[in-house]
Amino acid sequence: MCGIIGIITKKDRNLIPDITASLSDLEYRGYDSAGLALLDGGVIRVYKCVGAPSQNLNSEKIKKSLGLSETNAKVAIGHNRWATHGEPSVINAHPHLDCRGAVAVVHNGTILNYAKLKEELIGKGHVFSSETDTEVIPHLIEDYLGEGLSLGESVAKTCRGLEGSFGLAAVSAASPELLVVAKNGSPLVIGVLKESLIVASSQNAIIRYTDRIISLHDGEMAELSAGGELVYSISKFGDASSAKVSRQEEKITGISMEDVSKGEFETFMLKEIFDEPASVRAALLGRSDKNKGDAVLGGLIDYSDYLAHISHIYFVACGTAHNAACVGKEIIESLSDIIVESAIASEFRYRKHNFPKLDTAVFAVSQSGETADTLESVKEAKRKGYKTFGIVNVVGSAIAEETDAGIYTRAGLEIGVASTKAFTSQLAAIYLLALKLARERGMSVQKGKEYITELERLPELLKKTLELSTEPTKEIARLYGGIKTINFLGRGIHVPVSAEAALKFKELTYIEVGSYPLGELKHGPMAVIDKESLSVVLSPKDELFDISKNSIEQIKSKGGKIFLITSEDARGDSGINKADSVLYLPVLKEKLFYPMLEVIPLQLFAYHFAKNLGRNIDKPRNLAKSVTVE
Ligand code: M6R
Hints:
Layout: E1 3-14, H1 16-25, E2 33-40, E3 43-50, H2 53-56, H3 59-66, E4 72-81, E5 96-97, E6 103-111, H4 114-123, H5 136-146, H6 151-160, E7 164-172, E8 178-184, E9 189-192, E10 196-200, E11 212-215, E12 220-225, E13 231-236, E14 244-245, E15 250-251, H7 268-274, H8 276-284, E16 288-289, E17 294-295, H9 304-309, E18 312-317, H10 319-335, E19 339-344, H11 345-348, E20 360-366, H12 372-383, E21 387-392, H13 398-402, E22 405-408, H14 421-439, H15 445-479, E23 485-490, H16 494-509, E24 514-517, E25 533-538, H17 545-557, E26 561-567, E27 581-585, H18 594-612
Bound molecules: 5-amino-5-deoxy-1-O-phosphono-D-mannitol (M6R).
């Protein structure tokens, strides 16, 4: 949700190619408009555009528009936006300036008290040009510079008055060799190179230059200076004495340049779907002990005794992560006596919680680890006295830091806005968690061993499922291309998978579709079934298979078309002859693992359907990868 970049370099050079390349790497965070500012001696030069930076920012165009023959500079900042305050437009795009065009700021996050600040600033004679919350920041800095404070002091004082979340970078025409950044609730890291320092909202925008980084923590700011030696100094903006904070350099781990490129694939989403066997393997690697028939979750080790005695779990998550958590509820409840509720985070944070404080673990599930609703739910749960745990992909992210302990899902970088490998990696982590909880509550060693044996087969079976699904899903998406009504249906553990399938389908195709428990059809949704409708039914051969066949009959009797996803051992079963299209999954002994396999053809079905409609697969309209606003 918005990406920021800042570069400061020892020697003047054309920084536009680096800024635009980094903004392209950050494009998954927002792609409705973009902009950059160059600190050209004592002048700030700004260029903004509507649309994605990868398509709209290029050196020649910028040079021409700025009327410059050269665009060399020592300092530059850039931004791509996912609009929250004000429509996507050139005026609302960042960087934002003060009244004199002498301070420029890029910002990721939300300033909650901007309306009050704006009113006060207007009262003092400041003139605003955009509808954004961000624009108060350069105007506040302008005031403090006017009081004689340095740029660093002005940014610190500004940050002290801001409520909400921010990762920001500020430059001033009066300090042409200085870049000041601050962080509170939004991600920000500094990449360290010999000749330059690079600040970005994510490590993915830094890995193309270096793997050496300095992390900033919430409440901290950094002054990066290129006057003489290239230096940075970190302090806490809340600390008026500006005492320096010392911080060790770290190495970026878990992502590589390969992750930020599509490789041989036409889209990141397709690449990430085909990554799933490997990402699930990584999520499971070294996390089970076959002899003991148990899971080995290092991140939870300090809480083993606590988790052995809990009676309740709240999962909190949004979107795809919520759907994974709903699968988790089914798994944990079927393997143990723990009562589980899977709550949508934006609801959880505002409602009453009746599960007993001391015996309830709150598990936040999140790919990005920065989703505002999920993060706030964790904070709310902590305020209420619950212990909190993370099932998070991005290492060191806000949710990972905020929770008491957790499990990293190790999915690697996910760039496609539509989550794919994040979902299966979350399932892998939850399968392990469920095993741990079940073994502490009476699951036998033998059963644990069988569970692990089956779990270990999943990467191979995912590979097989991809092979089995690739061509049929293309064909089925083509066959039903003109269909007007689509419902995704299943029973039991397949209900949240059908919800995930519907979510994927909607966000990629922009077509409204439904998702219901199969048995619920006859209580209303059946009214939409006719020969112009498609029902995508998830029903591998498990204990609910026979009852699902009933529903298939009912859909057929109303003339509806059916695409059935079942398992190979159902082949030849008379009940499934009614389906118009059938896809057979590899057979699993542990039926609870079917969600992992069945989501694959559903991701591909949505993918091909959307592709046939000419949609922007990696960047669906109106969406962003990390939703850091409420
Ligand atoms: O980063 P998170 O897992 O916390 O994100 C939660 C949702 O915003 C996310 O899963 C979203 O629903 C997916 N991108 C949809 O494909």
